[in-house]
Every structure is written in C-alpha cells, then in structure tokens.
Amino acid sequence: MKELSYFEEKMKDSQLIYDGRVLHVYKDRVDLPNGRTSTREYCKHGGAVAVVPLTKDGKVVCVRQYRYALGRVTLEIPAGKLDYPGEDHEEAALRELREETGYRTDKLTPIGNLSTSPALLTEIIYMYLAKDMTLGETDPDEDECLELLEIPLEELVDAILSGQVQDSKTQAAVLKVWAMKQKGMV
Fold first, then answer.
1. What pLDDT was estimated at residue 6?
2. What percent of the chain lies above the pLDDT cut of 70?
3. Where does residue 21 fall: left (phi above 0), alpha (psi -120 to 50 degrees), or beta otherwise?
C-alpha cells in the first residue's frame, strides 16, 4: 500500500506532560493537511515483543496474570516490553519466552507487528512464533505472578472468537498463526 502524504500532520510544537518509567505523555500542536491547526495528545512507549509458543503437540503456552489497569486476570501469550531503545526484537522475544515460560528455542519466526492503539500510543509489538522448544526453568520479573497453561491452538482460537480472550496481542498473534497453519505456512 502506498502512503498518502496528503494526510500527514506536521508538528508545530511539543510539550512533555508526564515522564514516567514506561509511558511518556505528550501534547503537540499540529498543522493539518486542510490548513487548520489541532492538538494531539499521545503516549510514547518503547515497544514490546510477544511470542506464540507452539508445542510439538499443537498447544500454545499461555500465561494467566492479574492486570492492575483492568482489575482482573487475563489470559495472554508471553510478552514484554523492550528493555532499552534499539534492543534486538528477536533477542527480547527469546528472553520473554524463557523468563515467563521456561521454554527456549533457536527457531523464532516473525509473524508481523501490531500497533496497539495508534490514535494515542506509539507502542509497536513485534510478534513471533516459537517452535521446536525445550523446557527449562522460568525466571519471571520480580513484579510478575504468572500461571502457565498449555491450550490446544484450535481451542484457543475458539476462546478468542467467543470473546473469552480479550488481549489484543494474543488475539492478533494467535489468529495469525492459525491462519498461517491453515495455509500450510506453519
């Protein structure tokens, strides 16, 4: 697809409103393509990775964890933020896979990128499929309390389609892997 420069907005000035550990909130004034000026508020985020760990018997290794912002437990694929600007995405994905599940692999397949909320967040999640894994010890971050589950891919797809799994990265990555499998690409 061609990008249409007609739609591009040009920043006039930018103000940092909040500078947190993970999120950095900005308020910018922009010139619109129609000649008007407007305001854009958004959060800068350093990016993240997510992994669909697919076992030899066709199960996806998932994590269940409490998400404070939602006030409830969610079912997700292993994922995590990039530790520093420029961090190699594949290395970060391998780290998150090992830390959260204990699984290790030499075989990661990139399956695309996800812009989580492009109207107000710069976060891009780099998604991968992991296969041919071996199990070792987990090493979760000190603030992570996780429960591991292995769910057959088809059952997880059904849970996504029925609304039981609401996490966007899990939905996007698992449905991509399912589609790839249907086309013989996995």
1. 75
2. 96
3. alpha
